[in-house]
């Protein structure tokens, strides 16, 4: 255990020796706590059978733990300056590969398939907070055999990801996550386990990807969700009919009726299933 990266003194020594200064704009808050690192990896449920895709390895703290617990790790890091550090910290692990580039720009589907074909993907990451939602969107859109995601995010984002209908945390993000997976907050993480300390607390969300997606075209579904949440205080009828769809208010009233949804309800009270039924009853073009 002594050899592990995650003690504060080891990490500080490495950063100093390499003259590395963290860049706020890249969301660089590095973990310095073994319990948190092990907690994330245990919570991910990955075993020696599983291959992991990590976003943002930083100096390799979580990567090292994953290398020990998983079959292999492909980690994508945007900051080229971390190259000499990662070469040193992960030198002992032959089941790790670091790919330098922007996770939002690389063709991750191709990179994965070139190496591992159709092997299932487990994502584990302490995400850079400035791009949490675009990265989650891109990962779910990858069209790879994605099985699970275990990500550390800002606490408030974790609560929105797992938000239940009727609560203040429920919104388009909750529905996006639930469309694809069953999410759960598995760990609360105080800001004291990072250097530098972020202003906000964090939480780890584990998402088990659903075997088959709901079968409603995603784009259609999310246009309706977006419209429903565009006016928080309006009824679902008013929100949908003032959004700019090419449907009359009477037509939308009819769709709601057909979907068994009371037109005076508010968008934030509709469950995933109700939104799916609504999407089924919308015409192809609207
Ligand atoms: N995994 C490390 C840890 O837990 O200590 C570092 C986590 S830190 C919160 C986020 C990491 O993501 C940083 O290393 C940062 O350079 C990297 N990063 C930021 N934006 C990125 C992007 N668009 N694509 C890939 N990596 C990115």
Automatic annotation (TrEMBL):
Cross-referenced CDD domains: AdoMet_MTases
Binding site residues for S-adenosyl-L-methionine: 29, 31, 56, 77, 102, 126
Stored SMART domains: rADc
Subcellular location field: Cytoplasm
GO cellular component entries: cytosol
Catalyzed reaction equations: adenosine(1518)/adenosine(1519) in 16S rRNA + 4 S-adenosyl-L-methionine = N(6)-dimethyladenosine(1518)/N(6)-dimethyladenosine(1519) in 16S rRNA + 4 S-adenosyl-L-homocysteine + 4 H(+)
Matches recorded under SUPFAM superfamilies: S-adenosyl-L-methionine-dependent methyltransferases
Sequence ranges assigned to domain Ribosomal RNA adenine methylase transferase N-terminal in this UniProt record: 36-211
EC number(s) per entry: 2.1.1.182
Main localization of the protein described in the UniProt heading: cytoplasm
Keywords: Cytoplasm, Methyltransferase, RNA-binding, rRNA processing, S-adenosyl-L-methionine, Transferase
InterPro entries referenced in this protein's UniProt entry, alphabetically: KsgA/Erm (IPR001737), rRNA_Ade_diMease-like_C (IPR023165), rRNA_Ade_Mease_Trfase_CS (IPR020596), rRNA_Ade_methylase_Trfase_N (IPR020598), rRNA_adenine_dimethylase (IPR011530), SAM-dependent_MTases_sf (IPR029063)
GO MF annotation: an example: RNA binding
PROSITE patterns in UniProt: RRNA_A_DIMETH, SAM_RNA_A_N6_MT
EC class of the enzyme, as a word: transferase
Origin superkingdom: Bacteria
Alphabetized Gene3D superfamilies for the sequence: Ribosomal RNA adenine dimethylase-like, domain 2 (1.10.8.100), Vaccinia Virus protein VP39 (3.40.50.150)
Similarity annotation: Belongs to the class I-like SAM-binding methyltransferase superfamily. rRNA adenine N(6)-methyltransferase family. RsmA subfamily.
The protein's role, per its UniProt record: Specifically dimethylates two adjacent adenosines (A1518 and A1519) in the loop of a conserved hairpin near the 3'-end of 16S rRNA in the 30S particle. May play a critical role in biogenesis of 30S subunits.
NCBIfam families, per the entry: ksgA
Name assigned to this protein: Ribosomal RNA small subunit methyltransferase A
Organism of this sequence: Urinicoccus massiliensis
